[in-house]
Design brief:
- The chain has helices at about 30-40, 75, 95-120, 160-180, 200-210, 230-240, 260-270, 280-290, 295-300, 310, 320-335; strands spanning about 1-5, 10-15, 20-25, 45-50, 60-65, 80-85, 125-130, 185-190, 195, 225, 225-230, 250, 260.
- Helix 5 (about 200-210) packs across helix 7.
- The chain has a seven-stranded parallel beta sheet, with helices on both faces. A two-stranded antiparallel sheet has the order 1-2. A two-stranded parallel sheet has the order 9-11.
- By secondary structure, it is of the alpha/beta class.
- The two termini are about 30 Å apart.
- The radius of gyration is 19 Å and the shape is globular.
- It contains eleven helices and 13 strands.
- The longest helix has 24 residues, at about 95-120.
- It has one domain (about 20-335): 3-Layer(aba) Sandwich (Rossmann fold), CATH 3.40.50.
- Helix 1 (about 30-40) links the parallel strand 3 (about 20-25) and strand 4 (about 45-50).
């Protein structure tokens, strides 16, 4: 059975009918965390977010530093599901200080959550930990699924920033799976970029470029873009909670990655823009410098596809980017 969310789309399996769940989301104050917290809160679950900063929300927000055990561990004990999203944003320049913070914020938070679960008298049934589709190599030749995908980091000529991102991803997953939590099912969420109309997210930034007439291809435009619509993202999380046989690494991404030039063309068409100025590699490098970010986020080819989700019966509402872009643009206009 399925129910509907506010967009009229199927939410996912009705695991919610049987029980009101206690769901804890460390690092849930960011964009993805807010998407999930709204979703679960709307379903009537008891949601608790761990955050480094105070925030007003319809759900409980508990302070923590992401490094040390503290009173927040009481929320882990007896919870049904823990979804750890903690980690400093990678949308920054990869200076030595930022690299250290990006790595530590992921590895240390994962370690301390593992410690909290290990000492809990009633450990959660499921621990999902954020990972990233960036863990796979730069791929133009073929798709990367969970079974046959090749981890990156050794591509010839890959910039040091790309190797750093792979090091972060592999270190993150290594810490997660090393945690001794025998009573808790564990899933690493290798998520692609989550597209939602929320302000400040990846989609709103891309749409801003299109609206400004700058939404053309980036460099060659041949690099692949992996993505997932926010409605499918929350439905996938619902599905993974319900499917108790699934564990390990799961690619959470739409089955239709496409080259950057096609991706941007579809977004322009959804908005109603005829043309978009392209950006050469050197233009992207200059822009990234002034925006205090890295070109890896645009130039690395992420040709990642899901295998385990569809093999287990999950169906995407938005499997192709043109239809997803039209829906997101329509929702953005309404907002």
């Amino acid at each position: 059975m399925f129910n509907k969310d506010s967009t009229g789309l199927p939410r996912g399996l009705l695991f919610t009918d049987a029980k009101r769940l206690r769901i804890v989301i460390p690092g849930g104050s960011g964009q993805v965390g807010q998407i999930l917290a709204r979703h679960f809160h709307g379903q009537g679950h008891a949601v608790t977010v761990f955050s480094r900063r105070a925030a007003s929300a319809p759900w409980r927000t508990i302070p923590w530093n992401g490094r040390d055990l503290g009173s927040w561990t009481q929320e882990i004990d007896g919870a049904d599901v823990v979804i750890n999203l903690a980690g400093r944003s990678v949308n920054c320049r990869y200076t030595s200080a930022n690299r250290r913070e990006i790595m530590d914020s992921r590895v240390l938070s994962t370690r301390v959550i593992g410690q909290a679960i290990a000492q809990a008298s009633q450990p959660p049934a499921l621990w999902m930990n954020a990972s990233t589709a960036t863990i796979y190599r730069h791929a133009l030749d073929r798709p990367m699924d969970e079974a046959t995908g090749e981890l990156g980091g050794s591509e010839p000529g890959a910039p040091s920033t790309w190797r750093f991102s792979i090091d972060v991803a592999t270190s993150w997953e290594r810490e997660f799976f090393a945690a001794v939590t025998p009573g808790t099912r564990k899933i690493a969420l290798r998520s692609a970029v989550i597209m939602s109309p929320d302000q400040g997210g990846a989609f709103s930034i891309l749409l801003l470029l299109v609206r400004a007439g700058l939404g053309g291809k980036a460099a060659s435009g041949n690099q692949f873009v992996s993505w997932v619509h926010d409605a499918d993202f929350v439905r996938a999380i619902d599905f993974l909670i319900a499917q108790k046989h699934l564990d390990g690494c799961i690619n959470v991404c739409a089955p239709g990655p496409l080259p950057n030039h096609e991706f941007m063309r579809s977004l322009r068409q959804a908005w109603g823009a005829g043309v978009g100025l392209p950006a050469t590699k050197w233009m992207l490098e200059i822009g990234a410098f002034f925006l205090r970010t890295e070109t890896e986020l645009i130039l690395k080819s992420r040709r990642v596809v899901p295998q385990r989700l569809p093999d287990s019966g999950f169906e995407f509402c938005f499997s192709d980017w043109p239809s997803a872009a039209r829906d997101l643009v329509s929702r953005w206009r309404k907002r």
